[in-house]
Amino acid sequence: MALQEKLDRFKKQQQACQSTLVSIASTRKTAAPTAASASSNGRTQAPANKFSNDTERLQHINSIRKAPIGAQMKRVIGLLFETRQAFTPEQINEACYVDMRTNKDVFDNLKKNPKVHYDGERFSYKSKHDLKEKSQLLYLIRKFPEGIPVIDLKDSYPTVMGDLQALKAAGQIWLLSNFDSQEDIAYPNDPRVLIKVDDDLKQLFRGVELPNDMLDVEKDLQKNGMKPATNTAKRRSAAQIQGISTKSKTKKKKNEITKRTKLTNSHLPELFQNLS
């Protein structure tokens, strides 16, 4: 008895899948060649694909269409993001088996999604910044002298991350990490760009006392997750092996201006106020 119930359920599932495939086939515009034209060309027509035999494919399509609305929307947005092309609902149905004509909730929610653009006929992916190539990317970054988050750029077009690295390697931009959010920020490396620095930040910067020993400086950098550009320990070890002194050279005392100094800048009297 249990076996008979399973067989009945399987038959119902096959019928549902069969109707699903028929609806997909009706949306396709490609027509199969007629038997007459095939015989006139002397070619044997390939056997038709029997939908009832393609059980795994039918089950896959059926599972997609029975999935939650959010899962179907994610599938469509993924298609739009990867291809960067505009699709009609029928083309989306053919590409990823999400039937928006029969599922009005998916259709309406996609129209309102901030990552999707709908022009009344086709759906396409909508990035935060409308960029297509590297020169446009550089032009946009130069509009933000205080930096623009990379996360706002990474979905602009497929090769944007490679272009960011290329601009960095060419010295046209800086990519620096934000310690609070651990996200990269893109800054323009353009001497013509004027960057305004707050007075509070200036005082904070000038109030930081740096260690006298470079070893301590490098340790502090490593504690804050930064890689030092120098390796003092290695340099000193190599110097000891070669017998080179590692003591810092004493700086020569600058010559002070005295009464006996020959003055060549007599037109700047404020420089010699202390000479009394």
Question: Which runs of at least 5 residues are low in confidence (pLDDT < 50)?
Answer: 29-40
Mean pLDDT: 79
What is the SS-derived class?
Answer: mainly alpha
Order of helices and strands: HHHHHHEEHEHEEHHH
Q: How many alpha or pi helices?
A: 11
End-to-end C-alpha gap: 120 Å
Biggest beta sheet attributes: 3 strands, antiparallel
Backbone shape: elongated
Strand content: 5-15%
The side-by-side strand order for the widest beta sheet comes to: 3-5-4
Helical residue percent band: 40-55%
Extended strand count: 5
Instruction: Return Rg in Å.
Output: 35 Å
Architecture overview:
The chain has 276 residues and is mainly α. The protein has eleven helices and five strands; from the N terminus they run ααααααββαβαββααα. The strands form two sheets. The chain has a three-stranded antiparallel β-sheet, covered by helices on one side. α1 (2-27) packs across α3 and α4 (69-83) crosses α6 (104-112). The longest helix has 26 residues, at 2-27. It is elongated and about 90 Å long.
Which tags fit this structure?
mainly alpha; single chain; 44% helix; 276 residues; 5 strands; 3-stranded antiparallel β-sheet
